[in-house]
Design goal:
Chain A: This is Dihydrolipoamide acetyltransferase component of pyruvate dehydrogenase complex. Chain A: Forms a 24-polypeptide structural core with octahedral symmetry. The complex is a heterodimer of chains A (about 425) and B (about 325). Chain A is α+β, with helices and mostly antiparallel strands and about 425 residues long. Chain A is built from nine helices and 18 strands. In chain A, a hairpin with a 4-residue loop joins strand 4 and strand 5. In chain A, helix 2 packs parallel to helix 3, helix 6 packs across helix 7 and helix 6 packs across helix 8. Chain A is globular and about 80 Å long. Chain A starts with 5 loop residues before the first strand and ends with a helix. Chain B contains twelve helices and 14 strands. The chains are: A alpha+beta (about 425), B alpha/beta (about 325). Chains A and B meet through helix 2 of A and loops of B.
């Protein structure tokens, strides 16, 4: 059981395995009251303030600011009537496996996780090691080896399954930079926990999801003109091209609900929502929070909601729930000038729409005379286990059609 | 490339060592005029003369004792003990003299001798002419033990053993003497203590030495047909043994099977398994399984001997057990 004098790194999400102790808000010797924030944890997803679960006195801080420690590691000691683990602020926090995760730091050395009911967990050393580093509680697993022994493959299957349930940090073309090939001399760039997790998850996504791609261009000349005129009204929320694209995707999901599906445990799960993820470039890295019910929002309502999500992403105020759900994410790099973006699917989802910059091109009109138009490059990456080329092409066409007839997006959502 | 037999590789190594270094001498039972009981020293008497290679009485204790003395006086003796079973008679010279001299003289002396000896069953030679007793020798600090699996390693390890400043036992499985293999025209001297990875695999590591290496390769081929990818390591040296290579392999396959013809109980596999269970503990995803001979003398009867010896089927069964 937990040492009552230990303050532990909390587990803030199902797949969280380590956290960066971003900052301490207390000093040794300081008296804290219940609910007072003790430290801030930065995970692969968000920054979270961790409060004291009872009044007490901080004895010593064991982890420096900026250090990465595994879930369940002791970060400080205190004297308190409260139990060891401070409560977490994140909704959906999973207080699992803290005993297991603590093992590497305990003086008593490695041992089997505490038995549930006097029964020893049978697991191979490798399975135990993997479980420890990923914060998996072996007691929750069923082993497939002799006598129910848990093998490495059993733990890995659980990790993959839980990763599939909650999409988190994001897939994006430039994340390939995290790839580390040890070739030639050079200076190694230290990675944050966030970056390491992203590298691992994107590698897994690109290697396990059978990606295929459908490409289209959308004529957004009318859309840009409409946007200009809408934004002349200074009282209304400003609308961006991204907002139009989000709402086009949301409406496409509403009209083609079968597309809002993801791959889980050898099957397809239809989500029945029109939630859409949005890639946001933040100082900490790329995040993909989910905007809810996009298909039933008005353009103004969507613009307000999307800006609120983006603002929370940039200020590090997102909660674990902000990352759950949604089958598709929109990633718009148009403002940075690329014509097309071919993105990697965000783990746990089944599609991602890469949006490039608008290009000014001459197109023949009905009489064959050149007309200056603005065209947007769109690439839809899809999971072939969940959908196929025909469905993906049809879905992308819905988006293109909506963007080319932007007045339709101003209509109510019913 | 040329094709040579295992025995010929030993003969070439002896000849090349004697030609390279005048202090190399060879003696043992029937090694000189007869060219060796198995023919390992054929032709050497004609080439190097009876002062460099000579026959001894049937007294293994005398042969080994003389070798220690000769080695301490500046020569490099290579002796042959016709069957490893009779290593029993050489033990005082090996264990109490050869192995201890460097330590007891504070590094100011050494015993650069080589003892060649065949082990192994399969020829119906019975309980006293078939034993694999290498674990006894590998247990003694001060002795080195090598056990080549093919012509190239027989040549390379024997050359290294003769050059080595300390006593080296080279154990040769007599079932391999007739084995032919393609070898390079210039055979290299192989370092003692370095294993060879004969086959790359992902799911299980098979560690063995000597003739058992071929059993492992056959098992790996069978397993491959069933979609199981096995890595095969030929230790080549038992003392010192290449712990790093085995650990590295275990770290990628996470399962280990150790195979040898010696009796399983207290055999070389026990040491390998124990070390890997220690330094490789967190890498293990299944029990370390040993495949060795049962705890009994080698039977005379060919039918019983066939059941007694490790074979590919036993290795496959062991692999399935650790993969379960």
């Amino acid at each position: 059981m937990s040492d009552p004098s230990a303050i532990l790194m909390p587990k803030l999400g199902l797949t969280m395995t380590e956290g960066v102790l971003a900052s301490w808000l207390v000093k040794p010797g300081e008296q804290v009251r219940e609910g007072q924030t003790i430290f801030v944890v930065e995970t692969e997803k968000i920054s979270t303030e961790v409060p004291a679960n009872a009044a007490g006195v901080i004895v010593e801080l064991l982890v420096g600011e900026g250090e990465t420690v595994p879930v369940g590691a002791t970060v400080a000691r205190w004297t308190s009537a409260g139990a060891g683990l401070p409560p977490t602020t994140g909704r959906g926090a999973v207080p699992a496996a803290t005993d297991t995760a603590q093992i590497p730091h305990s003086q008593s050395g490695a041992h089997a996780p505490s038995p549930a009911a006097g029964e020893r967990v049978l697991a191979t050393p490798l399975a135990r090691r993997i479980a420890r580093t990923h914060g998996v509680d072996l007691r929750t697993l069923t082993g497939t080896g002799p006598r129910g022994r848990i093998k490495a493959a059993d733990v890995e299957a659980t990790i993959v399954a839980s990763a599939a349930k909650g999409p988190e940090s994001l897939a994006q073309g430039d994340a390939g930079a995290a790839q580390s090939g040890r070739v030639g001399p050079g200076r190694s760039r230290p990675l944050s926990g966030f970056q390491k997790t992203m590298a691992r998850r994107l590698t897994e996504a690109k290697q396990t999801i059978p990606h295929f791609y459908v490409l289209a261009t959308a004529d957004i000349t009318d859309l840009l003109e409409l946007r200009r005129r809408l934004n002349e009204d200074s009282a209304a929320p400003k609308v961006s091209v991204t907002h139009f694209i989000l709402i086009a995707v949301g409406r496409a999901l509403r009209d083609d609900p079968g597309f809002a599906a993801v791959w889980v445990d050898d099957g397809v799960l239809e989500l029945g929502t029109t939630d859409v993820g949005l890639a946001v470039d933040t100082p900490r890295g790329l995040l993909a929070p989910v905007v809810r019910d996009v298909g039933s929002r008005s353009l103004n309502g969507l613009a307000t909601e999307a800006e609120s999500v983006i603002e929370r992403a940039r200020s590090g105020a997102l909660l674990p729930d902000d990352f759950h759900g949604g089958a598709i994410t929109v990633s718009n790099v148009g403002m940075h000038g690329a014509a097309f973006l071919v993105p990697i699917i965000n783990p746990g989802q089944s599609a991602i729409l890469g949006v490039g910059a608008a290009s000014r091109v001459f197109r023949p009109d009905k009489q064959g005379a050149p007309r200056l138009r603005e065209e947007l490059g769109l690439v839809l990456s899809c999971d072939h286990r969940v959908t196929n080329g025909v469905s993906a092409a049809r879905f992308l066409n819905r988006i293109v059609a909506a963007l080319q007839n932007p007045l339709g997006l101003l209509r109510g959502s019913s | 490339m040329t094709e040579i037999r295992y025995l010929r590789a030993i003969n070439m190594a002896l000849a090349d060592a004697m030609a390279e270094d005048d202090t190399v001498v060879v003696f043992g039972e029937d090694v000189s005029e007869a060219g060796g009981s198995f023919g390992a020293s054929r032709g050497l008497r004609d080439r190097f003369g009876p002062d460099r290679i000579f026959d001894t009485p049937i007294s293994e204790a005398a042969i080994a004792g003389a070798a220690v003395g000769v080695a301490m006086s500046g020569l490099r003796p290579v002796i042959e003990i016709m069957f490893m079973d009779f290593i029993t008679l050489t033990m005082d010279a090996l264990v109490n003299q050869a192995a201890k001299a460097r330590f007891m003289f504070g590094g100011q002396g050494s015993v650069p001798m080589v003892l060649r000896t065949p082990h192994g069953a399969g020829l119906g030679a019975g309980p006293q002419h078939s034993q694999c007793l290498e674990a006894w020798l590998a247990h003694v600090p001060g002795l080195k033990v090598v056990c080549p699996s093919d012509p190239a390693s027989a040549y390379g390890l024997l050359r290294a053993a003769i050059r080595d400043p300390d006593p080296v036992i080279m154990v040769e499985n007599k079932a391999l003497y007739g084995m032919k293999a393609e070898v390079a025209d210039e055979l290299p001297v192989l370092p003692i203590g370095k294993a060879a990875i004969l086959r790359r695999g992902k799911e299980v590591t098979l560690v063995s030495y000597g003739a058992s290496v071929h059993i492992c390769s056959a098992a790996a081929a069978q397993l491959e047909a069933d979609g199981i990818s096995a890595e095969v390591i030929d230790l080549r040296s038992l003392q010192p043994w290449d712990e790093a290579t085995v650990l590295e392999s275990l770290s990628s396959t996470h399962r280990l099977v150790v195979v040898h013809e010696a009796v399983e109980a207290f055999g070389p596999g026990a040491e390998i398994a124990a070390r890997m269970a220690d330094v490789g503990f967190d890498e293990l995803d299944g029990p370390i399984v040993r495949v060795g001979a049962p705890f009994m003398p080698v039977p005379f009867s060919k039918a019983l001997e066939g059941r007694y010896l490790p074979d590919a089927a036993k290795v496959v069964a062991a692999v399935r057990r650790t993969l379960a």
